[in-house]
Amino acid sequence: EQTLRALGERHRLYIGTAVDMAALNDANDPQYRALVGSEFSTVTAENVMKWESLEPTRGTYNWGPADQLIDFARQNRQLVRGHVLVWQNQLPSWLTSGVANGTIGTEELRGLLRNHITNVVTHFKGKIWQWDVVNEAVSDPWDSPPAIHLKGFWAQQLGAGYIADAFRWARAADSKALLFYNDYNIEAFGARDSSDKTQFVYDMVKQLRDNRVPIDGVGSQGHLGTQYGNYDAFAVADALNQFSSLGLATAFTEVDARSQMTAGVQAGDSNEINPRVQASAFNYSVLLQACLSNRHCLSFTVWGFTDKHSWVPTWFTNPPEGLATLYDENYQPKKAYQTVKADL
Ligand code: XIL
């Protein structure tokens, strides 16, 4: 039986997964570690490169878990996607509370962000293939107001210019790593109006390119909900092609396709004739085929590969969702795994 990474190599496509460091180090869960090493040619830290993990106390960096992942990757001949430099979530509380109570002002905050990017990119210099420099900066049509806009802590505190700054600071610290803008809900162009997030991101990265800001790629996360139905293969391929026609690389960076656990869907249903479980496999295939059809699509990374260790059931609780990954909770390959394998 061929592995996904071996099959991906035939297309020069890297196949990746997010890695949960607790699971990787759990001696009672050896299959997790074995499969990360055998099936994947690139890894992403699910949490340990986020700011709250790297600098839990102001001025004290905790590099240990992230360095461990880098070592694991080297031993297994894997490339590392760095995730993430600038994001409004999982910030250390000393930073968010300092801003909230006014002890950290705007100029200091800008300096803190600049130092953070410089410190982190320098620490990992030469070891990171792609950096997610800015993550999830853009609103969704279901946010308020529905017209798409720059959202979140950094835009509110520093204004829109933080995005270009972040890319410049990252490039200055490591001239070789590929620098990505990363977001979800940009798999396809939709309404092509003021509520079209994909269009907004397209316009944003085009402007960065036009302004000679050092951005190399767009990461489409690919967190799919099967309740939205089957994605359109042509529309997904078109979105990648539009991004790459700006001279940018593309990648799927956090793929999973979750199902609502209501209406008779159970854990363990993974290979049953259940329309939502079939839809999960189908949607993996849509994203993978779009990536395979785009010469500039460098990697296809899943956000966890087993339902035993997936963020979906903890995050999407109302209604409960799950069954989002390639393997079930007992490390049995699911229909999604077979479909991905057949496509490669
Ligand atoms: C998620 C992790 O999987 C969870 O363990 C954590 O509690 C929250 O963050 N988009 C991203 C990822 O860019 O960093 C998020 O990861 C999932 C959504």
UniProtKB/TrEMBL annotation:
Keyword presence, Signal: yes
**Magnesium among the record's keywords?**
no
What InterPro entries does the record tag this protein with?
GH, GH10, GH10_dom
Q: What Enzyme Commission number(s) apply to this enzyme?
A: 3.2.1.8
Q: Which GO terms describe its biological process?
A: xylan catabolic process
List UniProt keywords, sorted A-Z.
Carbohydrate metabolism, Glycosidase, Hydrolase, Polysaccharide degradation, Signal, Xylan degradation
A molecular function annotated in GO for this UniProt entry is:
endo-1,4-beta-xylanase activity
Q: Which superkingdom, per the lineage?
A: Bacteria
Q: Where is the GH10 domain?
A: 18-343
- Name the catalysed reactions: Endohydrolysis of (1->4)-beta-D-xylosidic linkages in xylans
What family classification does the UniProt entry report for this protein? Belongs to the glycosyl hydrolase 10 (cellulase F) family.
Q: What is this protein called?
A: Beta-xylanase
Please tell me the species this chain comes from. Rhizocola hellebori
Underlying gene:
xynA_6
